[in-house]
Known about the structure:
Layout: H1 2-22, H2 27-42, H3 65-91, E1 92-94, E2 98-102, E3 105-107, E4 113-118, E5 125-126, E6 131-135, H4 138-247, H5 253-322, H6 325-359, E7 361-363, E8 368-371, E9 380-381, E10 388-391, E11 395-402, E12 414-419, E13 426-434, E14 460-467, E15 484-489
Antiparallel strand pairs: 1-15, 2-11, 3-10, 4-6, 4-9, 5-8, 6-7, 8-10, 11-14, 12-13, 12-15, 13-14
Helix pairs in contact: 4-5, 4-6
Amino acid sequence: MSEVIDQKEREETKEKETVEAKGPQPVVEAVDEDARRTDEDEEEIESITTDDEVVMRKRPLYKRPAFLGIAAILLIVAAIFGVRYWLYARAHESTDDAFIDGRVVQVSPKVSGYVAKVYVTDNQVVQKDELIAELDARDYEARVQQARAALEAGEARLREAHTGVELTRANTKANVQQASATVQQARAGVASQRAAAAAERTRIAQAGAGISTAQANLSQAQSQVTAAEAEASMTNADVQRYQELYSKDEISRQRLDQAVAASRTANAQLETARGRVAAAEAQVSEARSAQTTAAENARRAETQVGGAQAGVGEAMGRLAQANTAPEQIAVSQAQAETAGATIEQLRAALEQAELELSYTKIKAPESGRVTRKAVEEGALVQVGQPLMAVVPGDVWVTANFKENQIGSLKPGQPVELYIDAYPDKVFNGHVDSIQAGTGARFSLIPPENATGNYVKVVQRVPVKIDFDKDQLDAQHTLAPGMSVVPEVKVK
């Protein structure tokens, strides 16, 4: 075996001397020769012979001193870097499923209308409450005017209702007093008519008594007429008899004259008695007429008593109606309250109209940069239609770590952030919070592992990472969606 190796070394030495004798060769040939020699060095030649034959084998590359030295150095370097990487990996958790996140505020109109003016362009920086667009406000101005006019009319009705309450209170009070006075007057009238009826009934009695007296006087007068007639007849007969006797000179002239005087006296008394009868008859007629008049007056008085009593009932009704003053006042107050409620409704309608008018001026909800502008002047926009978005400057990182990495993460741990857009800068941050659930759980269609065949998939849990206060500057614009590789120091 040693003889074979010595022979091989002698052949290599001879070849080197030949090459040196020939002088320098072209580079390409030298490269080819080196490649060939390398390939030959890497080949393994084995020959299997009998017990007397020798096995021929080239010397392996790994047994050469230079190669062994380089390999040892590489192994040492690899071990150093491997240990360092292992120590670093033990103290850090990292993921490439991370992105810049932030608030994207959609700008949408609260009222519909035609766009009159747009004051911003794409990627323009705006401040909070800055006017960015304006809708045609003429329709809404007309609504405000209409609501204001309705409110003024309602306020006038409210004032009228309050005045009506006071007027109703005053009128009802006066009506109560007037009705009370009317009731008292009607009751006094009833009493007066009853007194008048009683007086007429007294007159009827008096007239009846006067009739009796007159009839008694008439009877007496008639009796006196009868007696006077008898006396007159007797005296007249005496005069005739005395005249006959006087003509015969049987009696004196004096006696005849006495008989004539007595006859005249009896006739006069007869006429007087007849006059008394006529007067008594007149008195009887007058008494009867007075009785009839008194009866008529009594009947009229009784009728007036009924009318007066009806007046009392009517006055009592008016008094009862006047006594409903609290209810009437309550009705007026209810009408005033209704008018007041209507005022509140009209005032709310005016405020709503003014609010809608203010909505025609679309302002920036936040300070930030305008993105996704999708509105132009003259366009008809509807309520809630996205017009543009405003991205504020406050951003953070949402890193989706595997579930087997979450156990070592805690809020407050420092984080180094490597953003693809700025490979020359390392941003510093800290863990803010860990979401209470995996991302798949809050997806639009969460997985139902209890149905079908189950295939275990490593879940990812979103972790919010905030930038440190001094890390954000104007030279490095951070926008939502940028790729980030966070490395969290957990130990």
